[in-house]
Amino acid sequence: MKFGIIFYTILGILAFTLGIYFLQYNFIISIIFFIGAFINGIFIHKEYSIHKHDKIEYEEDTVSDEVVIKYSRSGRIIAISTYSIFVMIGILFLYQSSLN
C-alpha cells in the first residue's frame, strides 16, 4: 500500500543527488534532475492523498466479471522522465568522450 510513496521517495532522492553531482559538470543537466526531484515530490503528495482517503469497500455482488485496467498518467510520466534521464546521461557521456 505504501510502495508508491517509498518508490517516489527513492526516485526523488536519486534525482536530487544526481542533480547535485552534475552541478559541477553542467548546470543545465543538473536543472533537469532538480525538476525531476520536484515532480517526484508532487507524486509523493498525490500518493499520500490517495492512500489517506482510500476507504473503498467492495461487496461480492458489485464486482463485475470483467475488469478494465487503465494505466495512470503519472506512470506514463515516470516512464518518460526515466527514459529522458537515461538519454541525458548518455548525451553527457558522449559529450565528455568527444572532448577527450
Write the layout of secondary structure elements.
Elements: H1 3-22, H2 27-52, H3 73-99
Helix pairs in contact: 1-2, 2-3
Which key terms come to mind for this protein?
100 residues; mainly alpha; 0% strand
Quick overview:
With 100 residues, the chain is an all-alpha fold.
N-to-C order of helices and strands:
HHH
Q: Tell me the number of strands.
A: 0
| Strand content range | under 5%
Largest sheet: none
Tell me, what's the shape?
A: elongated
Q: Could you say which structural class the secondary elements and strand pairing correspond to?
A: mainly alpha
* Terminal CA distance: 48 Å
What does the radius of gyration come to? 19 Å
Share in helix: over 70%
Secondary structure tally, helices: 3
- Low-pLDDT stretches: none
Mean pLDDT: 77
Task: Describe the model.
The protein has 100 residues and is mainly α. It has 3 helices and no strands. Helix 1 (3-22) runs antiparallel to helix 2 and helix 2 runs antiparallel to helix 3. The longest helix has 27 residues, at 73-99. It is elongated.
